[in-house]
Amino acid sequence: MVTTFAWVPSSLLAPPDQVLRSLFSLASNGQLLVHVSASLYRLLVGFFLGSLLGAALGIFTGVSKRAEAFLAPTLQAFAPVPPIAWIPLLIVFFGIGEGSKIALIALASFVVVYLHAFQGVRAADQKLVELAHAYKKGRPALVWEVLLPCALPGILTGLRVSLGLSWILLIAAELIASSRGLGWLIWDSRNFSRPDDMLAGMLAIAVLGGLSDRLLALLEKRLLSWRDSFAGA
């Protein structure tokens, strides 16, 4: 409506049909695949590494009081620092290439998943832990059979939160320093006054972000099929 009635010039805000034509054009000439592939590679590698380490350390510090005393104060002290504030330091260590972008996403994913995993373990029912001790369950069995199932809902929630945050940080990193990727496509389109390509890039991010969250939601539903939770009225 805004573009139809010319409330905003088309040079600033492209109409929907023009955005769709731009999206199809980018897809047909192969540019969209190049940018999507670059962004997905950075996102998936960083998200996987950060989430894996965050879940492992979160469970470890949740189970062990010694580990909590040694690691938790440092990790939780840096948790409030906005991930985007790490970009200059990461560029110093890893350069402006793939390393700094992957490290940024891994760092953000690590913090979110670590906190959810730690709290998930500590939220386990003490009676279940005592019952496991009564059956003389060792530490590995206690973690695998009791604490991990209790922490799993929190870990999966952390994964979904960190995935959304990873998309935001990925685009921010690509806007700052990159030569390809969806964030770079948006920035380059803005520099050359191509609002149709810019909005096409944003639409691609929205679709990919929604699909990735949906996949995690399906995984969560499958892994937590045993849980009888409220699904809305």
SSE blueprint:
Blueprint lengths: L15 H13 L2 H33 L1 H14 L8 H8 L3 H25 L3 H9 L4 H38 L5 H10 L3 H29 L10
Protein architecture, described:
The longest helix has 38 residues, at 139-176. The protein has helices at 16-28, 31-63, 65-78, 87-94, 98-122, 126-134, 139-176, 182-191, 195-223. The protein has nine helices and no strands. It is elongated and about 70 Å long. Helix 2 packs parallel to helix 5 (98-122). With 233 residues, the chain is mostly helical. 33% of the residues are buried. It has one domain (16-220): Orthogonal Bundle (MetI-like fold), CATH 1.10.3720.10. This is ABC transporter permease. Residues 36-220 form the ABC transmembrane type-1 domain. InterPro entries: MetI-like, MetI-like_sf. It comes from Candidatus Iainarchaeum sp. It is a multi-pass membrane protein.
Number of helices: 9
Order of helices and strands: HHHHHHHHH
Query: How large a portion of the residues is in β-strands, by DSSP E?
Result: under 5%
CATH C-level name:
Mainly Alpha
Helix content range: over 70%
Spans with pLDDT under 50 lasting ≥5 residues? none
Number of domains: 1
Note the main sheet: none
Radius of gyration: 22 Å
Q: What does the overall shape look like?
A: elongated
Average pLDDT figure: 85
